Amino acid sequence: MAHTCRGTIPLATAHIGVGDACHLVLTSGGRSYHLKATSEAECQRWVSALQQAKANATVLMHHSDDSGDEAPIPHEERALTQGVLKTLASKLDDLSTCNELIGKHGAALQRSLSELEELRASNDNTDKVKAVNERATLFRITSNAMLNACRDFLDVAESHSRRWQKALHYEREQRHHLEETIEQLAKQHNSLERAWRENPSSYRPQDGDVSDDNEEAEFFDAMEDSTNVCSKRTHQHSSVCCISQTISFSSVCFYMFVCFKDTSTNHMQLRRTRRTRIPDKPNYSLNLWSIMKNCIGKDLSRIPMPVNFNEPLSMLQRLTEDLEYSELLDRAARCDSSLEQMCLVAAFSVSSYSTTVHRTAKPFNPLLGETYELDRLEEYGYRSISEQISHHPPAAAHHVTSQRGWTLWQHITIDSKFRGKYISVMPLGNIHLQFHSSGNHYVWSKVTSTVHNIIVGKLWIDQSGDIDIVNTTTKDTCRLKFSPYSYFSREVPRKVTGVVEDREGTAHYILSGTWDDKMESAKIVESSQGGGGSEGKQKTVYQTLQPKLLWKKYPLPENAENMHFFSSLALTLNEPEEGVAPTDSRLRPDQRLMEEGLWDEANIQKQRLEERQRQERKKREAQANQALEDGQDIEGYQPLWFDRKTDENTGDATYFYKGGYWEAKERQNWSQCPRIF
């Protein structure tokens, strides 16, 4: 096992003892486990198997110790240690021999004593008394030998214990120093990565810094062999950049980015610098229970809530925040294997929850017709548009197009219930992802989010349920299981596991990790049927290669705890931008006032907008009733940028982007947009 957990026993250091006829005892670390077999034969088989496993574990442990990266032990020190171990082993053999002799002579002495008891009444007992004396003498000699062997063993162990303790202390200090060094390197790497994400333009070289020969440059992925990180081949020369294996792949990508530039364009365009902070969250206190105690069982979107329990982002912006790790889809678009591609798509589906671990506040419920755009063509090659297509129940349509080989769209309806102690948020609908080169089309849905401790205690959020990802083109599948948190569970909190299978149902990859930190994949090399699982089903045991990191969460920005725990991307989502549609969430006044810390003013604006929306809904209902009385066809609310159609893969009615938004933005013609703010 790569790690231990509660209940595991290291066999290499365990003691295996035999109790009564069918009992055996495993002792390790001060704990004893008493096991009972159904027969003496079965007990002996278990003892033999455990002893063999102990021997194997001991060999593996020594092999692991010998194959590490530690500094070489001096020859004299190694020879001395081996000599001591041989002496201890010899003394231990002596103890075993004495133990067997004591048992043998003790049994003989017991038999002689029993015979002497039977002959007590007889006068001819001289020979028996002599035999008892001889056996008692042998038993005493053997016992003395046992005591001497124990003393010798103890003397040797004690004479070297101080030196071993010193060596152990030195190794612990070395390990602690190494951990501190690695942690410092990781912090430096994260700082560099965050600095680049926040201001990529400051790391781009000037036009004169790079030769025009770079137009013929070729770059190669560093995922398989990190010793040769990047290669550059030109007409005149070739060079190889080699970076230490301790640098992660993302660091290599960062290094390549700042060292080289794409000269396919004739001029360098300066990228916009995005903001890295927002005003600190005010410390307002308000009793949530006093507001919600009369709302148990109701739809959360229908409960009038002050902005005190919101975060300064709309649900459309939270939906767009799923693109935080869009580079996973960029990598997936370059995959030749659909199964490897599935692993990256699964990691992307999990990564969308990483920003929620500290985000217990409720996003603003968008107004009907509200939109949100995110144009990141320059930085990440994609642009996104979303629109609120229904107010009750709240529903949004979302469309993303990437120049790096993929398109994503989704139609999500939010069903939320307040249960007294907790709030459940259930996103209904499917997420679609299609890769341009292969045509692979993936479909999956979201899991349930639950906010706990509404009445008393600190609010915390959990994700639970299953995500079934299906490649409708190749029929590959992946089921991800989000384990709900349990106080009594020994599992890692926020655990996510999954298996990637082909169309035949053959498993190829095991996925594991947590939704708030990272996901890994391990290629399966062999599978077999193990012991019984739940409900009488047999468990499948997989043998895998070493896991590979698929996704790792970015560190939060500095002072994030005072900025609603926003990620680097979330901090930029509500940043004012020129030229957006008049229905864009950035222009919503109550949300803007809340971000600026003016919560009282924000509450006034929120009530105004909600009342205006209620009046608009009543007007539409009156128009529908009038049309019904006149015998005319009733046409409900029609979104501006999305059309309702039947999905060919799922057969469900969903909303597809019908185009026109980016063209309208280019012309700055928003005449068709309603006035909702």
Automatic annotation (TrEMBL):
GO cellular component: cytosol; perinuclear endoplasmic reticulum; plasma membrane
Main location class: membrane
Subcellular location: Membrane
Record Pfam families: Oxysterol_BP
Compositional bias annotation for Basic and acidic residues: 610-622
Biological process per Gene Ontology, one example term: lipid transport
Ranges where the record places region Disordered: 610-630
Molecular function per GO: cholesterol binding
Coiled-coil ranges from the UniProt annotation: 168-195
Family of the protein in this entry: Belongs to the OSBP family.
Protein name: Oxysterol-binding protein
